[in-house]
Amino acid sequence: MLTGIKAHTLRIWEKRYDIVSAERTDTNIRFYSDVQLKSLLNISLLNHNGIKISKIASLSQDEIRHKAMEVGLMQTSDNYFQGKLIEFMIAMDEANFEATYESSIRKLGFVHQIESVLYPFMRKVGMLWTTGSIDPAQEHFATNIIKRRIMREIEKTKRLNENPKRFILFLPEGELHEIGLLIAEYILRIHGARTLYLGSSVPIEDLERVNESFMPDYYITCFIVEGVGRSVREELNYISDKFPKSEILYFGSSFLLSDINPPANCNYLTSLHQLDQYAI
């Protein structure tokens, strides 16, 4: 559950305290509106900070919101930041989303914030997307703010190793989710690697044009959705055949990648921290 409340517990609370009762579709599937989800995030925050559900249930929605704000001002936990980012994404509240995101970086540091706040937040966004709880505009709103922030950090990286390893970073045709690829570029550049970032939905023909001039040691790509016309396995085979002298590093959705038997020059990154060993 995105709120941190187990579904079984939530149903008990609804029955016993009449707290944020779920709506239902025509086929009797339970769901929560944007307003209800924001209320549940606040209720979860208060409950996780020692306030009994019976006490929370006695408060009005305005009182719950104000109490959550008071508690939130004293919070620095990873879950707090994730919850507030979801809340402000749903509301498309740019000022508060950016302020919360910057606050998490100041408290945790840029690298640690990626691991403990950004990754879990993006997984929750994926769950919200899958269940239809958010629309494309809300996802794009959040991801574009995050992309701008990561790109500012990338621009600050100046160090370059002597005879640096060379990486081309790209997403295959049909793949538009760039945040993971941007994080990969940041990690590589802080370790002094040379990168060529091509971005999303790149045709193989474009890679062939830059291959000879850049002469990469590695290609890095990411699979979040199935590509256009080819499965992940077929895509990796195709890239491997085109660039046999380079190593292809890939990461992404475990749902898509868990059963892949990749070609010999392809390696699956289960964590972007594994890039440390390739960059040096």
Uncertain residue ranges? none
The number of E-state strands comes to 7
In one word, what is the shape? elongated
Number of domains: 2
Give me the strand/helix succession: HEEHHHHHHHEHEHEHEHEH
| Whole-number mean pLDDT | 85
Oligomer: single chain
The level 1 CATH classification of the largest domain is Mainly Alpha
In percent terms, what proportion of residues is strand? 5-15%
| Helical amount | 55-70%
How would you describe what is shown here?
- Helix content is 56%, strand content 12%.
- The protein is an alpha/beta fold and 280 residues long.
- It folds into two domains: 7-153, Methyltransferase, Methionine Synthase (B12-binding Domains), Chain A, domain 1 (Orthogonal Bundle); 158-279, Rossmann fold, CATH 3.40.50.280.
- The strands form two sheets. A five-stranded parallel β-sheet has the order 4-3-5-6-7, sandwiched between helices.
- Helix 2 packs across helix 4 and helix 8 packs parallel to helix 9.
- The mean pLDDT is 85.
Task: Write a concise synopsis of the structure shown.
This protein has helices at residues 7-17, 34-48, 53-57, 61-73, 78-91, 94-108, 110-130, 136-156, 179-190, 204-214, 232-242, 254-257, 275-279, and strands at 23-24, 30-31, 166-172, 194-202, 218-223, 247-252, 266-268.
Quickly list its features:
7 strands, 5-stranded parallel sheet, alpha/beta, 2 domains, two-stranded antiparallel ribbon, Rossmann fold
Task: Note the topology.
Blueprint: H1 7-17, E1 23-24, E2 30-31, H2 34-48, H3 53-57, H4 61-73, H5 78-91, H6 94-108, H7 110-130, H8 136-156, E3 166-172, H9 179-190, E4 194-202, H10 204-214, E5 218-223, H11 232-242, E6 247-252, H12 254-257, E7 266-268, H13 275-279
